[in-house]
Amino acid sequence: MKVLILGGDGYLGWPTAMSLSARGHDVWVVDNYLRRKTAVETASEALLNAPLLDERAAIFKAETGNGIKVTIGDLCDRSVLDNIFTIFKPDVVIHYAEQPSAPYSMMNYETARLTFDNNLQTTFNVIWAVLQHAPECHIIKLGTMGEYGTPNIDIEEGWIDIEHKGRSGKFLYPRAAGSLYHTTKVLDTDLLWFYVRTYGLKVSDLMQGPVYGFATAETDISDKLLPHFHYDDIFGTVVNRFLVQAVAGVPLTVYGKGGQTRGYLNIQDTLQCVELAMNNPVDAGELRILNQFTETFSVNELAEKIQAVGNVLNLNVEVKAIENPRKELEDHYYNPIHSGLNELGLKPHYMTDQVIAGMLNKVLEYKDRIDVSKILPRVKWS
Amino acid sequence: MKVLILGGDGYLGWPTAMSLSARGHDVWVVDNYLRRKTAVETASEALLNAPLLDERAAIFKAETGNGIKVTIGDLCDRSVLDNIFTIFKPDVVIHYAEQPSAPYSMMNYETARLTFDNNLQTTFNVIWAVLQHAPECHIIKLGTMGEYGTPNIDIEEGWIDIEHKGRSGKFLYPRAAGSLYHTTKVLDTDLLWFYVRTYGLKVSDLMQGPVYGFATAETDISDKLLPHFHYDDIFGTVVNRFLVQAVAGVPLTVYGKGGQTRGYLNIQDTLQCVELAMNNPVDAGELRILNQFTETFSVNELAEKIQAVGNVLNLNVEVKAIENPRKELEDHYYNPIHSGLNELGLKPHYMTDQVIAGMLNKVLEYKDRIDVSKILPRVKWS
Description:
2 copies of one chain form a homodimer. By secondary structure, chain A is of the alpha/beta class.
């Protein structure tokens, strides 16, 4: 298939590009290096500094013989997608091209506005590029489990049947996210749903939980093919941050009571899920929403798991609760359904002790690059 | 009170400004004349050509002694609100500043993008201006009944209690609008709700139905104080369009089966509702949603009412069904609750035969300005 990957420089975009190229697809990636710029701007250097896209694509080609086309461009500018769609009518667009940091979106007006404009304008332009150049193209959009927030009822997969005063209807599941970043994805879903039902687009919206790890079949070829790996408070997700804290010999910092429960997945399962969505396209006029994670943990459970494995590796891991910089429930009901991807054939890679040990050992190779001053929260919600 | 009105040149913004100024409030209006520009661009000249804002404010001052401050500026530019808020810390912001035409938002990429960027960026900037300069300020945002679409269950006022698998929760009512314009208001509400619950803003979101008429206590002073009055297919709402068709001697054009039912209100009741919301502010951290209309009619019922009154005035009104340019249900369940504004004290002006006759007689004064070529639909949803 002809696959266009937006946000191809990112933590998930790049491994996805390699994986699909290795499986024989014709892959084209676009990125404007926004993550690199925001990381520099906030002094949030990644643990692993991935080479630029052209260089990585050349390394991947040399190592495997598989090509990846690269365009550097800002997707808020309509012409970038127009130019690509005119010569490469993709069968699938995988849309990762969003500013994905919740703390970054909550720093100040400028970072909030950048997040808001970038994420919504990019989604808007993806919709219109497909409408005008390739209406049969399947859009696979990365949403987030964070769109739902932590409601007091079971979280269904995107849709809910509501019985109300003796009548019933099917609706988009109501969402209430915990950061502006997550809220932009709520808005993305609303916008996609409007264009799907009005013009018959084909969209899969993958509500993904926090991803951990960095090892995929292709990153194992060379460390130069590893994705960005952030452990700072702004761009590092909780598991990756805990791994680095364990290796650095500083306490794992739990925000507040640590009862915040979320659905997590291994980066290998992100690749699997996206491929499963791609190989099982939706009908015209269908917005398919899939909850993309494999198991749920509270923050305390994550800290305990990483502490236990770290201690086997003689890392003497401590856990410390700190004031929660976010505004979120620290103890709540959480029962999200996630059967859709399993039904499509997902074979989960669970967070076993062996998996945790593998990640800790990889981080240990880069221990001298860790700057522990980057880990404590710099951004508060209030 | 110090009242800042955004979109003060508009069909509703200008009468609101006069009304609140006449009641002794300190009123400042902002507009970028977007409606005038889009009307020229689409050859949709208004029946009544309102003078520019400075001139209207001068006429109003001369006639009544009441002042209205005027700023011409684009609210997508952060500095416009910063400058105003620095010297005029409003108690209330009334936010009408959106591109409000559904057909305009559905014409092509450029008009869709303008609608999307203008409406969302303006709301974003209003939120931040209030957060940073006047956190106690009450934001009164004009939403639309169109946010809800036409669901198969009763439409509550913004919020719904959902019972699901033995548990329950309160949620924003799920919405599914029928045009991109209406969808931008769905997104506005989602965005406002995020900032309300996170930072304790005070917001009233008024889900307004289509407004008709032009006569208010202040427009009765001079025709130069009348608001824009559009009757074309792009900017004219259905009642105003039918009034002009009746006067022009062309058939009232019903889109499709004409069973589309909506909640309508007289322009005088828009002024009442906004003032009631203003005089009954919400608490910090509250998003109050009120459904703002006084009675529901199907399109066929509206056509019949206007036909009947028109015939009493010897206008020989015909009604003609034409192909529906929109994608919408033409026969549907519709039971929206609208008790909130009544509880605050709304005294409705219903669409009586006398009211219809008054509107027809006013339009008759301007009959020679009607261009019937502007009335048939130029924009299709497909």
